[in-house]
Amino acid sequence: MNTFLRACLTLCAAAVLFSGCGAQEESGQASEAEPEEILYPVRIEENEICVGETTVQTLLDDGLVVTVSEMTDQNELVQYEVDPEMELEANSYYAGGSVWITDHVSASISFVTKEESVRMGEAVIACLEFDMAGAEDAELAKIAFNGVPVNEMSREKAGEMFPDFEGDDNVLFFYGSDYEYYMSFDAQEKRLVSFSAARKYDVDWSSEE
Predict the structure, then answer these.
(1) Nearest to 179 by CA among 162, 159, 155
(2) Lowest CB count within 10 Å: 24, 73, 90, 165, which one?
(3) Alpha-carbon gap, residue 192 to 85, rounded angstroms
(4) Which of these ranges, 27-41, 72-86, 150-164, has the smallest mean pLDDT?
């Protein structure tokens, strides 16, 4: 196994149980008081991404760079671009990747495989987490959440757009049975500085090697 392949496989593969979109978790019944869950899209450049649906290949086809990291024997962190043709195991969850939007802005990315092993490009994006503190407006305009460029997303506007989210003056979040969203705002200007969107999967982290 070559170094690149080892780097990709150290993404943290774990066995996954896929319950399907909208299914109730086995551990209990859904509460009647739970708000309706909505899949809010994320846009990077011209690509609309729906967690749990969009594949890694969609990002690669648009010229975005998806990387994974490996710690060398000299304790140096080295990044590698993913190989879209690399085979991934079935029913697995991979975390620890990054997708680069600009030279200064990236997002953490996780992806999953389902019942069959697939090439990396066909893996489905499970989570995107953006940290945008210090980014310029022109960079932030390349990213949108539910159709609104993040440089225009104030705390007030987010509260109007997502009335079912909980939180306070600096944070909004929604943790449902299928989707999770989290938004963090600058304490002074109330501008969006980080956010994440994730499709939930029942991951058995105890199987991690």
Answers:
(1) 162
(2) 73
(3) 36
(4) 27-41
DSSP code at position 176: -
Query: Looking at 25-34, 37-46, 63-72, 170-179, which range is the least confident one?
Result: 25-34
The mean pLDDT value for 121-148 works out to 93
DSSP state of 142: T
For 179, other C-beta atoms within 10 Å of its C-beta total 18
Contacts of 133 (CB under 8 A, 6+ apart): 186, 193, 194
- Joined together, the tokens standing for residue 168 give 């306070």
Is a pLDDT exceeding 50 seen at residue 4?
no
DSSP category for residue 134: T
From residue 131, alpha-carbon distances to 5, 106, 108, 200 in Å are 27, 7, 9, 20
Percent of the chain with pLDDT over 90: 58
Distance CA 77, CA 21 (A): 36
